[in-house]
UniProtKB/TrEMBL annotation:
It comes from Brassica carinata (Ethiopian mustard). Pfam families: Self-incomp_S1. It comes from the Eukaryota. One of its GO terms (cellular component) is extracellular region. Its main location: secreted. This is S-protein homolog. InterPro entries: Self-incomp_S1. It is found in: Secreted. Signal peptide: none annotated. Keywords: Secreted, Self-incompatibility, Signal.
């Protein structure tokens, strides 16, 4: 009974939405970002230098939510899993990333940089 009550589409979820912000720190060029999950295509977004692209989502309870993005600038095309639940979900509900030529960095108490895929 409690499970059915919690899964109703009319009730708020048991956990907050996750907010994710990416800042274009490439040093000048416009960044083209295209993010998707298994169920959602967020479309293509043009992000000017030193500006942000933001989206929010509801991660699933199984910790399998994955948002993967392609990043394009100049003649570069890079890819990265910008939200990977096993890696990120225990870090809270607000994520700030800086996108640099050598890879994305997750900001927080500690800055953690990752290589492109």
């Amino acid at each position: 009974m409690v499970l059915l009550f919690g899964l109703s589409h009319e009730l708020p979820p048991f956990w907050p939405r996750t907010d994710l912000t990416m800042t274009n720190n490439l040093g000048g060029p416009v960044l083209t970002v295209h993010c998707k999950s298994k169920d959602n295509d967020l479309g293509v977004h043009m992000v000017a230098a030193k500006t942000d692209y933001h989206f929010s989502f509801q991660p699933n309870i199984w910790k399998t939510t994955l948002f993967f993005c392609s990043f394009q600038w100049n003649n570069q095309v890079k890819q990265f899993d910008i939200f990977d639940a096993p890696r990120d979900q225990d870090d809270g509900y607000k994520f700030n990333w800086t996108i640099k030529p050598d890879g994305p960095c997750k900001l927080g108490k500690k800055i953690k940089c990752f290589p492109w895929k």
